[in-house]
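Worked example 4.2. Below are the chains of a multi-component assembly; read each line carefully before continuing.
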Amino acid sequence: MNTASLIESVKDQFPDAVSDSHSYRGDATLALRPDSLFEVARFLKEDSAFRMNLLVDVTAVDYLTFGKRPTPAFFASSGVTVKPPSQISDDDPWPGPPHGSRFTLVYHFYSIIHKHRLRLVVPVEETDASVNSLISLWPGADWLEREVWDMFGIAFRGHPDLRRILMYEEFEGHPLRKDYPVKKRQPLIGPAN
Amino acid sequence: MTDPTTSFLTSRLDKAIGWARKYSIFQYPFVTACCGMEYMATACSHYDVDRFGAGFPRFSPRQADVLFVVGTISHKMAPVLKRIHDQMAEPKWVVAFGVCTCTGGFYDNYATVMGIDTIMPVDVYIPGCPPRPEMVLDGLMKLQDKIQNQQTTGARPTPEPRPDIFEA
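Applying the procedure described above to all two chains together yields the following structure tokens:
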């Protein structure tokens, strides 16, 4: 399926679950409402038209400071913009950050059988930051979800072993959260510089 | 033992032992990152560190003389590196290979040790990202000079204090 039919198929199947969608250069993205992630993901894996048998990546975005900081001087002077060049059409543009939610979880799926990709975006609240684990569908979600827990502090309900995977057990906080102090150091041995 | 500055025999023994040690460097390569590729290129036949007697890596710290720390050291890895260093028998030397081990390099974040000399003494610093093989060989020869001039007995020269470039 192409990107448009991927989006339309999921929208037809789950009219209440999909809150937004966009696509850019052949990559389709669906923004879901919270708590509909698991059923949509199971549909994507088991439906014969989708067969998303590879969970490529799970990551998250912290929108705490999104749009609230000035562009760094280097990027401002280099002429780098966030808009695509005009010769690349952007007919279905990004709708923007989620309203009212601090985080979004991002799931990348790929179908080895049908060779198509789909990205799911799920907003996550700051208080009680947790979503359902996808381990029962893709066992490979184990370490990916542990990494998101480690870096962003988003918990996964139903994960059998939700421990840190990159940082050490003694580490406090979640370093990729935007409110983690840039200069904060927590060495196991040696000076804190 | 008599005063080494007046005793003919002892000073010649110092020199002989230094000569033997500097041409039989058993190195322990503690390779964690991309510098490892450059280390391997230097250690193999094209640049041939065996010319300097350092072509025999030992993967046990008990059998090694020189600890080559090659690549970024994270705070999670730091206790492991410290233990490896503690396990090595005296006399031992440490080479910081690459700018990450010297100062942290371009990393200044929650995960990276800002130079391994914050956790252990370092004898030779080889900066570069990664260092050219010529720089590695130059560092190796500087280490040989250091080993040659080291007293057989007695304390090794104390390292220079690290400049305090960090604000509290």
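Take a moment to check your reading of the output against the notes. Chain B touches chain A through 13 residues (CB under 8 Å). Strands of chain B lie at 26-31, 56-57, 66-70, 93-97, 124-126.
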